[in-house]
Amino acid sequence: MWTWFLRPKAFREENAMANLEVCLDSFMALEALVQTPLSNPLHLLGPIEAVGIPGISLNLGAISAEQTDLDHIRNLTGARLNLRVPAEEKQIARALGLAADLITVVNNQRADRTLTMNNGDWEKVLEPIVRNRDCALSVRLQADIRELKAAYQMGIDEVEIATDHLATVVSQTDFYNELGEVNHAIQVGQKNNLMVSIGGGLDRRLIAELLAISSPHFISVGRSLLAQSLHTGFEQALRNYYESLL
Asked: What residue numbers bound the domain in which 230 lies?
């Protein structure tokens, strides 16, 4: 029997609105190529703070030795700092030494970077973060209730549902089937005291479709935000995305 417990009603109502998370990886990749103010992540923190964006994220592999002062980044914004880390013991050990609020473990061997919790192979890898109470633990999963159950039973604080496939399906039928699976995973997780966030290929159109039927904890955007920033400027693009969640 899957013994989950419903959150108090007041908690659900207070947290009904989704939060925006800005993934800085695309901007950092652009910075390595063109070195423009738009793509320098430190230059982005002012607008992030001004707009009131509640979350930022980046990949551990994208951080160079000069960029590991995450305390400085966090002090400049006040946003939740989500550090995505490959599911490798050495990388996780490195991540635990950095000042992240949340560590999201991903599987770089898969195109959508999701873990498969049910095979039990990840328990040993994730255990050091489960034991560490200085930061919360998230894992990136497909929209599968069995995966969420396994994450919950392992003591994981939050899951990130991959929406990469939703962003690439062509037919309307496949799109709404995939949308229904993502929505079902969000609702089941939230009803049973598990934070559920989403990310992967999302733009404003897809976000609108998702928010019409569900309310994830955080919605992570990166490449689509960068693309719009090149047209409107970063702060205006941020405001457009932020207002689409209201």
From this structure: 16-244
The tally of domains found in the chain comes to: 1
pTM above 0.85, yes or no: yes
Distance CA 153, CA 148 (A): 9
The average pLDDT across 58-65 equals 70
In a domain, 163, yes or no: yes
Beta strands per DSSP E along the chain: 19-23, 55-59, 80-86, 102-106, 136-141, 158-162, 195-199, 218-221
Name the token pair of 119. Answer: 């095979």
Q: Is residue 225 part of a domain?
A: yes
Question: Looking at residue 36, which CATH number applies to its domain?
Answer: 3.20.20.70
Q: Residue 155 corresponds to which tokens in the numbers above? A: 């003591």
Q: How far is 198 from 206, CA to CA, in rounded Å?
A: 11
Residue 39 in any domain: the answer is: yes
φ, ψ dihedrals at 134, nearest 5°: -80, -20
How many beta carbons lie within 10 A of that of residue 146, not counting itself? 13
Kindly state the average pLDDT of the residues 74-98.
87
Rounded Cα distance between 211 and 246, Å, is: 10
Residues 157, 138: contact at Cβ < 8 Å? yes
The answer as to whether 181 is a domain residue is yes
